[in-house]
Amino acid sequence: MYLPSSHRPRRRPALTAAAALGLLIATAGIARPTAASAATQDNPPAVPTTLRTSPVTSCDGATIVGDTDLYLYANVSDPDGGTLGADFLLTRHDGESGDAIAEAQVSAASGTRAVYLVRKDKLEAAAGGSLTEFDWKVRATDSDRTSDWSTVCHFSFDPTHPGTPVITEPGASTVGHPLSIAVSAPGGGTVPTGYRYQLNGGAPVNVSADASGNATLTVTPTSSTNVLSVTSLSAGGNYGETATIYIISAPPSTNQADGDLTGDDIPDLLTVGARNGLPSGLWLAPGTGDGHVSTSPTDIGVNGGGRNSHGSPSDFDGSTVITGRFTGGAEQDVLVYFPSGTYAGSGVVVKGNGDGSPLNPVSGNTINIYGGSLQDVYGNNPLQLANAGTTSGRDTGFPDLIGISGDSANGYALNLYASGFNAGLFFPVTLNATTPDGTANWNDWTVATTQLPTPGGGGSTAMFLWNKSTGELDLWEDLAADPETGDLTYTAYPVATGWHTGAAVTLQAADADGDGVPDLRAVSEAGTVTTDLFTDLSGSAPATVTRITGTLTAS
């Protein structure tokens, strides 16, 4: 049947492929890609940045690395994120372009640091036994696109190890006095650029050498027999061979400073073990002259106290120790006193060596202080003892002692123990002195003394007085006592308030920084050493204090 054209069905025009795809996407509800999203689907990674190494080097090549593995680092990133590959390339600086010594691709997330380890054997093989400069660079890839290479960085690698240095035998030396020693390069091989040396196993010191490998070391002997070891160093800091010599030093010809057991005129710290965080023994921590002490003390009581032929460091357990020229020589000796226990009221003087070495308590080196010889008029042994120098004015050649004794029935007193004309001989004298707070409660106070030099020679005694329960700390200088009357004169300074209130500490007075003003060290039960350096002493106001702390660890 024929229909007029106005009644015929209209045909749809044919769809193009693009239109058909658009219709399919619209029907399926899929979003049509935009120009912006298409542009961000595959961007190239950024050029790696922040190139660095470990050990640390400078990218400009001014750094020399020693004979060790080397880590290379670079920051990588990609606008599209994801995981990237980082291509590391290491070449000799004087090699052909692309002639790789080491190359690898490592993975790293975008925005993080890529790391590549170059083993030292590869560097050694490429260096061929001599100082060699290397170049390295990095690029990033996302498997489809790759960044440009980064900036080229440089470093020099040193595989050399110098031979044994030559130490010139030094001239005469004295304990506690600096000594210069010349060192020169080995007879062949790599010329050292410096040396590392140690005296008596102490802290190592580095010194630079000149172009010929020559250097001068300065050491201060601390013992009559000293061991000096010197190790050669290459440009990259590689250790070479070590040479060792013995240095025999004479004892000081003048009297050692108060508290100086090592011969350098600097007061040292001596503390008893089996407390203060230390094993049994007598632990010597050398002073440094600026208020500090070595935190690695040595046991100079390892041979015991001479009470029997089987001396032990435990011989000193429960004792108190003070230093002074108790045998009348130039060296500082050690007086060991037992305020309680089996040996209460007795003690022993052990002659010092003057060089910080262990005491040798053999016959002739010890002087006994017999029990009862220091008792007061009531038969009480001293509760505390300290070095009083020439406080009695008797000039016997041996120091006096000062201390506290008493009991609850008869009260407590400050006593002078005037020295006799024989070492270890003392005569107790009760002093007419009240405590800094004006009472006779001497059992509430702890004393610690040091000897200060005076113009024209000689010296004077300075004594700290500490009340543990209140924290009051006072200083009495220029002590002078009359053994006949018991009168005591001094110059008083109220040093501090609230000082270590209630703390369990052992005290030692010393001019720790050499400024002529007494200072005070306190050693806690845990071995912490607190040194208070005092200045600006006043008769009416607390002193100015600088505090230094450290912790003793037995070596």
What does this protein structure show overall?
The protein has 3 helices and 34 strands. By secondary structure, the chain is mostly beta strands. It has 3 domains: 109 residues, Immunoglobulin-like, CATH 2.60.40.10; 83 residues, Immunoglobulin-like (Sandwich), CATH 2.60.40.10; 283 residues, Tachylectin-2, Chain A (5 Propeller). Strands 2-8-7-4-5 form a 5-stranded mixed sheet, covered by helices on one side. A 4-stranded antiparallel sheet has the order 12-11-14-15, with no helix packed on it. Strands 19-20-21-22 form a 4-stranded antiparallel sheet, with no helix packed on it. It is elongated. The N terminus is likely disordered.
Question: What topology does this entry show?
Answer:
Layout: H1 17-28, H2 35-39, E1 49-54, E2 60-65, E3 70-76, E4 83-92, E5 100-109, E6 112-118, H3 120-127, E7 132-141, E8 153-157, E9 166-167, E10 179-184, E11 194-199, E12 205-208, E13 215-219, E14 225-233, E15 239-248, E16 269-272, E17 282-285, E18 298-299, E19 320-324, E20 333-337, E21 347-350, E22 366-369, E23 384-389, E24 400-407, E25 411-419, E26 426-430, E27 445-453, E28 459-467, E29 473-481, E30 488-496, E31 505-510, E32 519-524, E33 528-535, E34 544-551
Outline of the structure:
The protein is mainly β. The chain has helices spanning 17-28, 35-39, 120-127, and strands at 49-54, 60-65, 70-76, 83-92, 100-109, 112-118, 132-141, 153-157, 166-167, 179-184, 194-199, 205-208, 215-219, 225-233, 239-248, 269-272, 282-285, 298-299, 320-324, 333-337, 347-350, 366-369, 384-389, 400-407, 411-419, 426-430, 445-453, 459-467, 473-481, 488-496, 505-510, 519-524, 528-535, 544-551. The protein is 5% helix and 40% strand.
